[in-house]
Amino acid sequence: MGFTQAVRTVLTQKYATFSGRASRSEYWWFQLFYGLLALAIVVLAFAAGAFSGQQGGTSSLVVVLMIIGGLLALGLVSPILALQVRRFHDRNMSGWWYLAVIILGMVPVIGRVSGLAITIISAMKGTEGPNKFGPDPLRPDARAEVFA
Q: What's the pTM?
């Protein structure tokens, strides 16, 4: 799955789909898209602030960019959560594990470890063949062999 197909899949076909599985390529391409989008908004906001010419105040363009960035972030909460749960499913882990890791991440010392755990789990190869969460996203037509 390429960059545009991953972004299109996450934002249109599976916007709030918490069932099924997500391949590593779908996950990481969308994470790249989200990071680039956030970076673009931050760079635009800093540039607008630097070239506004106002002393001691915030330019209206910066405020507008901050509002747009906030609305985009709010609109992307559901697809990001759904994508992360589907990525856990690809590892044959329940989405409830993601919730547990997020809750543990609120504990000050454990927070750093939980972020690392999510990154490691997301980077690991998914279960080959079908699992209890659905068919393999890399080979959806593959069947599980009972005596293999």
A: 0.82
